[in-house]
Design brief:
Layout: H1 11-15, H2 23-35, H3 42-55, H4 61-72, H5 79-86, H6 90-99, H7 105-115, H8 117-137, H9 152-163, H10 166-175, H11 190-201, H12 205-215, H13 220-228, H14 233-241, H15 246-256, H16 258-261, H17 264-276, H18 279-290, H19 309-323
Helix pairs in contact: 2-3, 2-4, 4-5, 4-6, 5-6, 6-8, 7-8, 7-9, 7-10, 8-9, 8-10, 9-18, 11-12, 11-15, 12-13, 13-14, 14-18, 15-17
Length: 344
């Protein structure tokens, strides 16, 4: 045994003796000793990992919860132990999923896929909170000319979404918002929706992608990920963020991608899920792709080319009337004899 466990030689064998079950105590003591030291050698980490993983399945829930709380807040948590605890019941997994830096994006995506909404909701909350925690903890930095690369906290929700399979994507989307309790979008991008439907019916994926790129303030590559993903869920996210009516969505799904449109069952399956998905979830995914902190409520944060067509046009018209000559004082235009009057 490693020197950090000075009085534990023989306890592993003692834990297996009939009539004496000290396994819960042993796991707690090992963990207490481990987290008391800020850093460990590779040998120390291996010894702790091997012993805990050998015992953890045989101890009670309370012990596993106690260990998870200590490992979750410990910066040097062994990844193998953190992964095992994160794949336990929700009481055990929660401290790890909320706090541990030992889990990577692939680990989190697999947990969303394998364990469902409860685990997915905690992972989503963790990734939303990380940018806020970082902005409080870090001192102000001098402005840089080049845009800094986005870190894992900012893009983790998008990474989880795009790296997951179809079932895990749906679980994650349902955990990010509730369609039954959210308010309807007050401004609908009518002209954008008409243009998107026309491009889909014309089987023009390039034009459709360009519209998505402009409407949601995405890069070309980002827009293509939403439009061309064969599973269809990313396209639902883009459509929901633009408040596309379900009947329009069905027509879009049937025409924009042959891999989807050729299967009537798949079109209706996606359309049915679209009804259950919230716009809040869609906006969180979109914002995460852009590299911004996902917003909790759907408030306009950008003014893309097509997004606010109707309200923007009405505002511009109103502004023109205010600054120009009042309509009631204008002299009517008289047509000259023998000439046809043109109307604008």
């Amino acid at each position: 045994m490693s020197a950090i466990f000075p009085k534990l030689e023989g306890l592993d064998s003692l834990a297996r003796r009939d009539g004496v079950d000290i396994r819960p105590t042993l796991v707690r003591v090992l963990t207490d000793l481990y987290v008391q030291k800020a850093a460990h050698t590779a040998e120390e980490e291996r010894h702790y990992t091997e012993l805990v993983l050998r015992l953890i399945d045989s101890v009670d829930l309370a012990t596993r919860v106690a260990v998870a709380r200590k490992i979750g807040s410990y910066a040097g948590a062994p990844p193998a132990v953190a992964r095992r605890l994160a794949r336990d019941s929700i009481e055990v997994a929660e401290p790890i999923l909320r706090q541990s830096a030992a889990l990577g994006s692939a680990d989190l995506a697999a947990i969303v896929r394998d364990f469902g909404p409860a685990h997915a909701a905690i992972i989503a909350a963790r990734e939303i909170a990380k940018p806020q925690q970082r902005s409080v903890a870090e001192p102000p930095k001098a402005p840089r000319v080049e845009r800094p690369a986005r870190d894992n906290a900012e893009i983790a929700i998008a990474d989880l979404f795009f790296s997951a399979d179809s079932a895990a994507r749906r679980t994650l989307l349902l955990s990010l918002g509730n369609a039954d309790s959210e308010a309807s979008q007050s401004v609908l991008p009518v002209e954008t929706l008409r243009a998107l439907e026309s491009a889909a019916l014309a089987r023009d994926p390039i034009g459709f992608t360009t519209l998505i790129e402009s409407a949601l303030s995405l890069t070309r590559g980002q827009a293509e990920r939403f439009v061309h993903d064969p599973s269809g869920e990313p396209l639902l996210v883009a459509a929901k963020a633009l408040a596309m009516p379900p009947v329009v969505l069905q027509r879009v799904l049937m025409f924009i991608d042959p891999a989807i449109g050729e299967s009537v069952a798949k079109v209706f399956d996606l359309a049915a899920f679209y009804e259950r998905m919230s716009a809040d979830a869609a906006h969180k995914i979109i914002d995460s792709v852009r590299g911004r902190e996902p917003v909790r409520t759907r408030k306009p944060q950008h003014r893309p080319m097509y997004y606010d067509d109707e309200s923007g046009r009405s505002r511009r018209a109103g502004a023109t009337r205010r600054v120009g000559t009042p309509a009631e004082t204008q002299t009517p235009v008289r047509a000259e004899p023998g000439k046809t009057q043109r109307t604008m």
